[in-house]
Design brief:
The protein is globular. It is of the alpha/beta class. The protein has a single domain, classed as Rossmann fold. Helix 2 packs across helix 4 and helix 7 packs across helix 11. Helix 6 links the parallel strand 5 and strand 6. The strands form three sheets. It has a seven-stranded parallel β-sheet, sandwiched between helices. The protein has a three-stranded mixed β-sheet with strand order 7-9-11.
């Protein structure tokens, strides 16, 4: 299978590319603009693989996308390219509208043109997976789970831009017949995760003895999904999911933010002990504007229809993650030194 992956140098995208190229032996064209969060070092293990190619390009560039389709001739598109950090969307929403909305539209149109030109069997086999987030659903109360039928209620410029792109993808299926499937995932964590996100930020700050910032009172709840479990799910959804349908992907691992940070502190005490417990570094800061209280995914549809099940629970996944960051400063050190030093964003 020939698979075009957009955003393949990001944290989730690179996990997917490593899985497709290394585990499944697919021929992959990775397309990435290489913004601050795109990192070719995340693809180091596959960079010389004969079944992998990289193209530096912007999904908003229609000519570049047309060229990618015509030269690579994919059987499947897995669209992950997006601006993704809520804090950055608060002060830089234009980038989110451009990439997430205009970029998705541009890619859908390039895919539609390519698909319309395929011979009958290839046209019948072609598929387009649009990868999205549970944040499009808004905020949950103390009870309940996000289901595929949950109404959209985005709270941030980021989630609003992703909601728009979801609607575009489904509209291109309903209006033009483009064979689209959509996935919505819960919060990812694991190796190669850009250090602006909560878990890698806390690990690296703890390692360097810096404050561990907690928004508000730390009671906000997220459902955590190990990134390699997500990559396996994405391949299943892309190849086996029903066209025009949505599939929620979640790890069934709800945790309060404060409990996530305390667990990381405990693991750091074990793996990188210092003279005092790492919990002493926890610092409460002013909450993020529009901070959703709780996310939780009901992954029943994915589990029953496609047979997917997460291989990592939160305790096993977070231990692997902390150990990976402690052992792989070659990857994160250049980012901390030259791209993002851990400062507060979105103020």
């Amino acid at each position: 299978m020939r698979i075009l992956v957009t955003g393949g140098a990001g944290s989730i995208g690179s996990a997917l590319v490593r899985h497709l190229v290394g585990d499944l032996g697919a021929a992959v064209l990775t397309v990435d603009k290489l913004t601050y969060a795109g990192n070719l070092a995340s693809l180091r293990v596959v960079e010389n693989a004969p079944n992998h190619r990289f193209l530096m390009a912007d999904i908003c560039d229609r000519a570049a996308m047309n060229e990618a389709f015509s030269t690579f001739q994919p059987d499947l598109v897995m669209h992950l390219a997006a601006e993704s950090h809520v804090d950055r969307s608060i002060t830089g929403s234009a980038d989110f509208i451009q990439t997430n909305v205009v970029g998705t539209f541009t890619l859908l149109e390039a895919a539609r043109q390519y698909w319309n030109g395929l011979e009958s069997e290839a046209k019948k086999a072609f598929r387009f997976l649009h990868v999205s987030t549970d944040e499009v659903y808004g905020s949950l109360g103390d009870d309940g789970l996000f289901e595929e039928e949950t109404a959209y209620d985005p709270s941030s410029p980021y989630s609003a831009s992703k909601a728009a792109s979801d609607h575009l993808a489904i509209a291109w299926y309903r209006t033009y017949g483009l064979p689209v499937v959509v996935s919505n995932c819960s919060n990812n964590y694991g190796p190669y995760h850009f250090p602006e996100k909560l878990i890698p930020l806390v690990i690296l700050n703890a390692l360097e003895g810096k404050p561990l910032p907690i928004y508000g009172n730390g009671a906000n709840i997220r459902d955590w999904l190990y990134v390699e479990d997500h990559a396996r799910a994405l391949h299943l959804v892309a190849t086996k999911g029903r066209l025009g349908e949505k599939y929620n992907i979640g790890g069934r691992n709800e945790r309060r933010n404060i409990d996530v940070v305390k667990r990381i502190c405990a693991l750091m005490d074990e793996m990188h002990p210092t003279t005092a417990p790492h919990e002493r570094l926890i610092t409460y800061v002013t909450d993020r504007p529009g901070h959703d209280a709780r996310y939780a995914i009901d992954a029943t549809k994915l589990e029953t229809e496609l047979g997917w099940k997460a291989q990592e629970d939160f305790d096993s996944g977070i231990a692997k993650t902390v150990r990976w960051y402690l052992e792989n400063d070659w990857w994160w050190r250049p980012l901390r030194d030259g791209v993002y030093k851990g400062e507060r964003l979105g103020i």
